[in-house]
Amino acid sequence: MGGLGLSGFVLFSWVLFLCCIFSVDGLSKVRGVNLGGWLVIEGWIKPSLFDGIPNGDMLDGTQVQIRSVVLNKYVSAANGGGSNVTVDRDVASTWETFRLWRVSDNEFQLRCLGGQFLTVNSEDGLILATAKHPLSTETFFIERNAGRVHIRPLNGGYVQATNDHLLISTYQFQPGWDNNLATFELVIVANNLHGDYQLANGYGSEKAKMVLEEHRRSFITANDFDFLSRHGINTVRIPVGWWITQDPYPPSPFVGGSLAALDLAFSWAQSYGLKCIIDLHAAPGSQNGMEHSASRDGSVDWPSPEYISQTLEVIDFLATRYGGHPSLLGIELLNEPSAATVPLDVLVSYYMRGYQIVRNHSSTAYVILCQRIGNADPIELFQAGIGLSNVVVDLHYYNLFDPYFATMNSSQNIEFVYKMRAPQLQDLKAMNGPLVFIGEWVNEWDVQNASQYEYQKFGSAQLDVYANATFGWSYWTLKNDMIHWDFEWNIQNKYLLFSGSSMLKTPSFLLLLALGWGIHLIIMPR
């Protein structure tokens, strides 16, 4: 081979090598941060968003139990609903627990375990647990005085217990707060849903719009993209809700504006050299019953043909709008579907259809499939044969949310990362299937009073192991009132020792270097 031919071959080989090592759309794997709590609300990330809601402990989905102060018995929907309501239980359990649907600051509908709502029989005022769809006859005023309540339907008298343990709305006078049959104790069992639905419905449309517009404007800004770029982050994973497709006028109670904010994020990403993953965090009907899926009351209704069809329309909308954008890296079809309530075959079918929709608009965008959370092995998605190219499976790794981690010390947590997480990543990599993405992880655990050094060791262990994920990783989350969940705080206070280099965001510098070296080889004197 002549000198020019040999030099050209060397140049070609060197450039090809560099292109190969940058395996994810010009990235040296994803090193990302989630923008959690921005376009999909999670109250624990910024609790102050909910501070101004009247009766803020009685939001949609709050679980309550009601006890007659005279009979000293709990109100119960037998078999979880479907028949009469009695006041005859000494101890409260699931049949005695009702989920609130908030209509106004002091008007509520009460949903039973089986999904039915309490309603008033128009003939005799008897309270039943038989309504499938709540209307005015299923709406009750709740008047509060400390832990006691009076309950009154929109039409009729106050609700009272009877001596034969029924519940009836025939009390025609204003009851006092003493021990009488129309006075009850209200026990709040759980108030753990603080998502978009609770915020918007709690404030009402006008106030919610003010609160969310200010939050979206100030919580994430161009300065944050600058910060991430300067600290070696090359990707942002952006959770969005299904109502973004109907912006700026989404269905009640959701508040418009998230689409404009997402457009801004793409613009900022392009300016600062970052890529974007759009993550459908909240699907219609809710895929996991949690606040970050915008569930109204913890129910999981997503696995129905109607909601799945609606979700596919969301994916089509996102792929149509952003499929050709230079900052798009991928679209995640669904975040954290619940293994307990989302059957695998239903999920796989949805993923296959969603993959094809994305491909209709982009041949290169990565299609990301989140594992089911709960009792499910992510290997099930590797065996499903979803898609032909640029498919990624998203795993969420937390040393939290499980009693297994509750008693671990710092060394045991670190050992778990090396002895359990690392082998799983190697096993999945060996399957030669989809790429692996640690789409959520955090430098936090259940260890009490851990030192900065212990946090540094834990964070370094995770960075070391998750570097083996073939697609990369994404920290949860950029900003959080709980400081160890806050990526920015971790970096600034050196609790997470992450040394990123901006050169790793794009191979262009190295490719130019290679090109220059190749030209040198070609023209240098022999």
From TrEMBL:
Domain of life: Eukaryota
GO molecular function: actin filament binding; hydrolase activity, hydrolyzing O-glycosyl compounds
Family stated for the protein in its record: Belongs to the glycosyl hydrolase 5 (cellulase A) family.
Residues annotated as signal peptide: 1-26
Taxonomic placement: Eukaryota, Viridiplantae, Streptophyta, Embryophyta, Tracheophyta
Transmembrane spans: 506-524
Domain DUF7910: 55-189
Organism per entry: Sorghum bicolor (Sorghum)
Pfam family, one: DUF7910
PROSITE patterns for this protein: GLYCOSYL_HYDROL_F5 (PS00659)
Keywords tagged on the record: Glycosidase, Hydrolase, Membrane, Signal, Transmembrane, Transmembrane helix
InterPro entries documented for this protein: Actin-crosslinking, DUF7910, Fascin, GH, Glyco_hydro_5, Glyco_hydro_5_CS
UniProt protein name: Mannan endo-1,4-beta-mannosidase
